[in-house]
Design brief:
Layout (H helix, E strand, L loop, with lengths): L1 H5 L10 H19 L9 H5 L4 H18 L5 H7 L26 H37 L4 E2 L6 E2 L2 H7 L1
Antiparallel strand pairs: 1-2
Helix pairs in contact: 4-6
């Protein structure tokens, strides 16, 4: 219920990477609270997001909404607004609107479109979690490689195993 309230009307949102990231953080935080996962359990966000990612939910809702627009009659105002272009004036600095080329023919069979949306959402979520896993592994590898470093004190020649330890020593 909380998720549907939070994402009410998400089909028509203009999403930026920053806003999706903030929604994802909120979602992970409350999934952790619901599941009772504390910080000292050391469960990474990628494991929590395997349960259900908010970005996949947003993508599925927007694809479903696009299917409704494409199936509408051409004289319907929402369809004209969705596929319309500005005849005069300037668009904001964000660049042109990008729409998939296959929208004109794909969603006319509603059952096939639903299956296509579900498979696209599933593959998107798999690739997103795999990318998060890859980034986490790279970050952890970097931490492992730097743990062998020592930080010598310039005053007493004592060596510390971390920079923060060196600052605390000083």
């Amino acid at each position: 219920m909380v998720l549907s309230t939070l994402l009410y009307g998400c089909e028509s949102w203009v999403l930026y990477r920053r806003s999706v990231h903030r929604l994802d953080e909120f979602h992970v935080q409350y999934l952790r609270k619901i599941a009772g996962i504390k910080w000292h359990h050391r469960v990474p966000n990628t494991e929590v997001l395997r349960l259900f990612g908010i970005e996949a939910f947003l993508l599925a809702a927007q694809l479903c909404w696009v299917g409704h627009f494409v199936r509408m009659e051409d004289d319907q105002i929402p369809k004209q607004v969705f596929f319309g272009q500005l005849s005069s004036g300037k668009r904001p600095q964000c660049g042109p609107v990008r729409r998939p080329q296959s929208l004109s023919t794909a969603p006319f069979d509603q059952a096939q479109w639903r299956n296509t949306c579900q498979s696209a959402t599933a593959s998107f979520e798999e690739s997103r979690v795999a990318e998060l896993d890859r980034k986490r592994a790279a970050r952890k590898l970097q931490v492992i490689n730097t743990t062998g470093m020592v930080w010598p004190c310039d005053r007493c020649s004592r060596t510390c195993s971390s920079r923060i330890g060196l600052f605390a020593h000083r």
